[in-house]
Amino acid sequence: MSSNLCCRLRQIFQRRPTGTTSPTLSGNDHLEYLVDRFKKKSNSTNFRRNRLAYKIIVNRLARVHRFSSIHDILNHQKQYPDITDEHFVARLICLYGESRMFDHALQLFDEMPDLNCPRSVLSFNTLLAACIASKEFDKFGELFREIPRKLSIEPDIISYNTMIKAFCEVGSMDAAVSLLDEIEKNGIEPNLITFNILLGSFYKGDADNFSKAETFWSLMQEKEVVLDVRSYNSRLHGMMRQKRVSEALNVLKEMEERGLQPNHYSYNVMIKGFVDEGNLKEAKKWYASMIGNDYMPDFFTHATLIPFACSKNDVDFAHELCIKSVDMKRPVSNGLMQKVADALFEQSEAEKAKELLKLKDSKGRLPDGNSLPAGD
After folding, report:
1. Please, is 282 exposed, middle or buried when counting C-beta atoms within 10 Å of its C-beta (0-12, 13-18, 19+)?
2. Residue 18 dihedral angles phi and psi, to the nearest 5°
3. Most buried in the list 47, 54, 244, 369, measured by CB within 10 Å?
């Protein structure tokens, strides 16, 4: 979260009338205070339009498992006239989903007629998305089939894309593919998002799934679907997973020929591919290329390269990456920095090691992890 965003958050929740002082609170009492302030702020029509304010407080409460407070805040919104606006209710359903409170999301959806709020494919799609966000995959199929039948709602391409995404997340790839026929049978055209979901899932799989992904790639070209950076990044990822380096380079070349610039994800794919091959020289080359093209390395870049550099005894490079990581939004973990410091001590680089340990102790750290995030 940026410093500007933090300032906005403090202004939203902690501004008090002139002549009063803010209470000194901590822990649960402080959260209760924020919840109370939020509910009072909700009396303002302009505040209720502030999507960011709602997202920030709900996410903060979800991180500390204050689900009763989340329900308190969102249930409080029912007293306002906005509750008859389907877009407003869809926002609340989405927030329940992001907090993995799907039962509450479904309950609110069911209550919409009693709240004089219409239900259309808009709120239906939001409920499906909330189901996925809550990881309630066992309920998804029934929702998708039963609600449209009961409420006479016609699923649209967003509905089907959400269904395909759900199948892909649970590994039911054949079921995801079968929906393509159903989509076209219902007179709906698959769009770029449809294919990007499939490409992203199949290119991450084994050789058989890679072959199927290539079939989708050809189908997209037959249907003259305009490819975007995400499409190419998925294919690039697949090529590098299958160690088809020369073909991966051709994918990058084709991207540029079509006027699409590789982004930070593209470079991370190349770096990860060469790390998997044990080729530090090429991994460093792509890291330098990332910097040279004005893309900032992220947590994944550092968490991938630092332990690999250590394993190849390039401790100076690992140290350089640790230093650069410190000022990032998501720096590498204490354990990884300790590993580099230990290697520096072993190479008689005591001053560098001590400097790194001071930085480690002065900064909060997140756990290690180097799963490649979704392409963008």
Report:
1. middle
2. -60, 135
3. 54
